[in-house]
Backbone:
């Protein structure tokens, strides 16, 4: 076993570990931003170079990987992959549509609410993958422009994701790194998410909502949709909803039962797999289990693994402590200024590039600020990071994976969402949500 | 043995890439076929249009593609959703939707290889000469017919 001092002296060619780690870090992030090579490959190469160059020992690299985040993501992906086959998401969308008598504006609000709630409890990409097609079918049947609906779904998914620990990868990472609980996120972020959601609906109403009209005949056709037919497997529905309810209860109680969300999500996934395996022969079990695991987005998981190692490299070399010192020096050690700086920089950065690498880097940076700020003050910084990173994703079409998924689906369906027209409305709306967040942070914490 | 010996369908039936989808559909309905190859002015092969592709254009956009709705039973008798885009077939051109990625058989393609490709593709495959011109369409039926008749001839000898 090597000590860390021994490792530092082993960096290739006797180079400074700080310089080598920074070079690997900058290069990795630069290539990720170009999107020329799949981001998971780039992250894994960066991680490998970090180890081969001697900055990190394999043991240190592995301990840099946050397996709580990995477990939570993987577990939830397996749960959702199994649950979606029951048709429950279409069911809820149709019930919501009929509840407002297929009125176009009511429908837009309902689908946005459904998207926000699902995004708060499940991952955003899956939510929009399930909601976008049924939305498009309903707008098709109503013969109305789907664009306002798809736009609202994007916003709703990012806003909903902001509200909980499990809603969005930045929150998962922050929760895991800091020990802030599911309830902490819920009490601190959900109220603001609700306000931002309501405020976002106003311009959407003024621009599109008041002009949306559907004929009585077309509305009758949508009212004739039979939500019960959307449920393809009743047993699966009961099993998966029960397990998801248990898992969410587990998240709420995680702190008092002294368990981490990663364990709870993974155990939930295993439990649902067990329920599905009952009474089936070995071959069917093997086939179904294989299929459930295959639906995990491994690209995302390996991206996380690689990034965690790259960030562990610059952290160990001391680069992030220096960055933290510089930021504190720039803000004059004033934690209110620091909080606003983190909020706005995170928002702009997350609108332009993937928020996952940004947050992965910012977490150790903020942890290093613990030298300057107290625990309560640090908590405000975490909320600023979460709000900026999650809501910032609304700024452009490339700001969040969910945005790209909706755009990709819309494109295939012949209703393309273009980068500039989207940004023209989305970016100001995102800035408005940051203004609201700033007021919220100021009133509640500063 | 190559497919050169198989009497596959000659390229009498073929469409220009700028034909409309409705023209293609009418031709297929009239001739009772599911696939028509596309050829440019010089007879060079440039894709194939099928009834499957046209039907795909008619189903609601929300049900197309890999993440589309896989089940539409809940929509009930919403036939209008299916017929809504029928008139679009009059203005859309076959080249915009034609499949160009399907494998192409060379004139001297071994029969075994052709048989394998035909099992992977549920459609007749175009046979194209070295000059890029269409020689005809080889269907599973033509290939099987040939195999059976060959076996029978051998048996009789």
Residues:
């Amino acid at each position: 076993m090597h000590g860390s001092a021994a490792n530092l002296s082993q960096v290739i060619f006797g180079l400074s570990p700080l310089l080598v780690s920074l070079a690997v870090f900058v290069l990795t992030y630069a290539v990720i931003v170009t999107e020329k090579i799949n981001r998971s490959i780039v992250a894994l190469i960066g991680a490998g170079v970090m180890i081969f160059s001697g900055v990190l020992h394999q043991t240190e690299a592995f301990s840099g990987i946050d397996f709580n985040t990995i477990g939570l993501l993987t577990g939830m992906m397996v749960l959702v992959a199994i649950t979606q086959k029951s048709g429950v998401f279409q069911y809820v969308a149709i019930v919501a549509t009929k509840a407002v008598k297929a009125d176009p504006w009511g429908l837009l609000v309902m689908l946005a609410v459904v998207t926000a709630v699902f995004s708060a409890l499940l991952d955003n990409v899956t939510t929009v993958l399930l909601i976008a097609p049924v939305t498009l079918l309903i707008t098709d049947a109503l013969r109305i422009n789907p664009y306002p609906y798809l736009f609202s779904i994007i916003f709703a998914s990012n806003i909903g994701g902001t509200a909980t620990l499990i809603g969005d990868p930045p929150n998962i990472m922050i929760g895991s790194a800091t020990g802030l609980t599911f309830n902490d996120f819920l009490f601190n972020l959900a109220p603001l998410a609700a306000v931002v959601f309501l405020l976002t609906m106003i311009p959407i109403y003024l621009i599109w909502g008041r002009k949306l009209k559907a004929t009585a005949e077309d509305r009758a056709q949508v009212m004739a949709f039979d939500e019960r037919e959307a449920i393809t497997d009743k047993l699966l529905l009961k099993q998966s909803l029960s397990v998801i309810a248990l898992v969410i209860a587990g998240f709420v109680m995680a702190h008092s039962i002294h368990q981490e969300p990663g364990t709870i999500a993974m155990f939930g996934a295993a439990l649902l797999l067990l329920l599905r395996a009952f009474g089936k022969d070995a071959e069917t079990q093997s086939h179904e289990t294989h299929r459930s695991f295959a639906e995990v987005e491994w690209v995302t998981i390996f991206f996380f693994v690689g990034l965690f190692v790259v960030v562990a490299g610059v952290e160990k070399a001391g680069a992030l402590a220096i960055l933290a010192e510089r930021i504190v020096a720039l803000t004059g050690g004033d934690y209110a200024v620091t909080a606003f700086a983190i909020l706005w920089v995170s928002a702009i950065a997350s609108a332009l590039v993937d928020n996952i690498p940004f947050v992965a880097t910012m977490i150790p940076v903020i942890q290093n600020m613990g030298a300057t700020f107290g625990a309560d003050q640090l908590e405000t910084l975490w909320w600023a990071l979460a709000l900026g990173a999650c809501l910032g994703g609304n700024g452009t079409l490339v700001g969040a994976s969910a945005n790209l998924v909706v755009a990709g689906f819309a494109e295939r369906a012949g209703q393309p969402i273009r980068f500039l027209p989207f940004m023209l409305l989305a970016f100001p709306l995102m800035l408005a949500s940051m203004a609201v967040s700033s007021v919220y942070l100021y009133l509640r914490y500063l | 043995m190559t497919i050169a010996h198989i009497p596959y369908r000659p390229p009498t039936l073929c469409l220009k890439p700028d034909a409309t989808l409705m023209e293609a559909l009418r031709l297929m309905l009239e001739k009772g076929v599911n696939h028509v190859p596309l050829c440019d002015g010089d007879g060079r092969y440039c894709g194939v249009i099928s009834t499957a592709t046209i039907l795909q254009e008619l189903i609601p956009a929300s049900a197309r593609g890999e993440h589309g709705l896989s089940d539409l039973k809940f929509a009930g008798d919403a036939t209008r959703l299916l017929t809504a885009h029928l008139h679009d077939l009059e203005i859309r051109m076959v080249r915009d939707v034609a499949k160009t990625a399907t494998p192409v058989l060379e004139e001297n393609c071994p029969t075994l290889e052709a048989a394998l490709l035909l099992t992977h593709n549920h459609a007749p495959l175009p046979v194209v000469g070295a000059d890029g011109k269409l020689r005809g369409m080889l269907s599973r039926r033509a290939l099987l017919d040939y195999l059976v008749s060959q076996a029978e001839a051998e048996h009789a000898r």
